Amino acid sequence: MNPHLSLNPLTDLHQMTVYPFMVNALEAGTIVALMAAFAGWFMVLRRETFAGHTLSVMSFPGASGAALAGLPLSAGYFCFCVLGALVIAVSSRTEGRRNLTQESAVIGAVQASGFALGFLFLSLYGGILENLEALLFGSFLGITTTQVHTLGAITLGVLLFFLIAGRPLFFASVDEAAASARGVPVRLLHMAFLVVLGLAVAATAQITGVLLVFALLVAPAAAAQQLTARIGLSLLLSVAFALGIIWVGLTLAYFSDYSVGFYVATIAFGLYLVCRTARALAPRLSFGDLVRA
Amino acid sequence: MTAAVKLADAAVTLGGNAIWSDASLEIATGEYVAVLGPNGSGKSTLLRVLLGLLPLSHGTVSVLGRSPTQAKREIGYLPQRHAFDASTRIRGIDLVRLGLDGHRFGLPRPGRSVEQRRVDEAIDLVGATSYARRAIGECSGGEQQRLLIAEALVAKPRMLFLDEPLDSLDLPNQTAVAALLEQICRSEQITILLVAHDVNPLLAHLDRVVYIAGGKVLSGRPEQVIASDTLSDLYQSPIEVLRTSDGRLVVVGQPDAPAHHSDRHAHP
Fold first, then answer.
1. Distance (Å, whole) CA B268 – CA A215
2. What Cα–Cα distance (Å) separates residue B261 from each residue in A30, A97, A281, B175?
3. Count of A–B CB contacts within 8 Å?
4. Selection from A62, A74, A72 nearest residue A28 by Cα
């Protein structure tokens, strides 16, 4: 049976959920969107989007390294993303403070060596990496129930981190010097955040693909922060946007021939554009507090 | 009454270099004090010593009659910083709240009225009520500085340390913030210690000046310290203090004239 998008959401949902692989994809997508929304929100606030992008690139040497070693691809993703996070965290600070100039240089170097290692592993592997396109641009086919459970456990850990360390992390993100003077372990939090970001990126990349993971990480948070300066509302919007993007993306991918990564990135970009435009027009249209605040 | 700050025969060494030594100094509770001196003379270093972030290499220090680390919780501290840029999408009121519980780990607690009232009071005290709910990036430099002062004040500290709070403000705002701090100092009976590179906006308000230059620390009433003979002695070179017709003080002959303070942001 070839699925066709009808205008009845219930019929569409029924069509999508008849196959177990699609149920897995929807579950994994929902889990990943939750995690990406929180990690991305702090990433945008801390101006560490370049770090986020580089960590997503680390999935490439991760995947090819895992193929070479005969390990599951996701194990490679997680190892390399966390390793990249640690390298960036350790070498981007001077005299105990964030050094933005050094940070971007270090991140660039990490990204270049990530690509280089990826190619090295690929040529050592000799063969052609199966599913290279899915690796780069994402696929919702073949997400196993075990994978869903793993993603769920990681997301639980990540959300717990933000629940417990969220306030001091926010403090350190907004005003590191003041936070440090008040006894917030800013260095440790920076490292912990990058590791958590690495985990979130590795998890998200399994659905959106290595090259497009960034869309789900950055767009919901950036769009939400355009609309409001309230912390709670901004986080809530970020989550809602991420869920919306992944659900619509998966639905369209299911009913069409194009990859889920394409849809996720396109919808995410469109959403950000709309929110920016709304904010730019807000003073003239007086949309109220949500946009102006 | 115990002194708010007491240094006896104190010295600081950073990376093998003596920053200043033989510093003896007493600041009484409730005083409004400016720490002055050329770049790199160790003004911020003094604040860091008093906050317990840096140990003395010699001598003793006490803050509120205790060691700096013990007194730390009763000090509001506003580090030197650059302005928030326009894209910072955080409300001033949330920033002020960080001064209360930003350092605490743990689950977020839903809006507790006691804390919210403290935040509102602190914002009211600095006169920031009308813009505290705007994104801080959209506030002017003077507005941002008032919100940051509220952040430092919100936990009801007994002392307030500010590192170059007038830096990056235009002249009317420098004067206004200097006056606001005096008003807070008097009404809340908080001892205020602030690092500044220009004494003039502060001159009418200060109780005491701590002047650091040439590895030495001098303290006294502003007109005592900022005088030709005192500063000449401190710098060990001829310095002239001139008073303009509008009451401003001009220090002439300083090795490090304020005309080129490009390295002002470098940490000593």
1. 42
2. 54, 23, 41, 20
3. 78
4. A74
Residue B105 has its nearest CB partner, among A165, A228, A293, at A165
Contact B81 A177 (CB under 8 A): yes
What pTM value is reported for the model? 0.87
Task: List the pLDDT tens digit at each of the 293 positions of chain A.
Answer: 467 777 778 888 888 888 888 899 999 999 999 999 999 999 999 999 999 999 988 988 998 899 899 888 888 888 999 999 999 998 888 777 788 888 889 999 999 999 999 989 988 888 776 667 777 777 777 788 988 999 999 999 999 999 999 999 999 999 888 898 888 999 999 999 999 999 998 888 887 787 778 788 999 999 999 999 999 999 999 999 999 999 999 999 888 888 888 899 999 999 999 999 988 887 655 444 454 44
CB-CB contact of B230 with B239 (8 Å): no
Show residues of chain B in contact with A226, CB under 8 Å.
89
* Measured distance between the N- and C-terminal CA atoms of chain A, rounded to whole angstroms: 50
Check CB contact under 8 Å for A164 and B107: yes
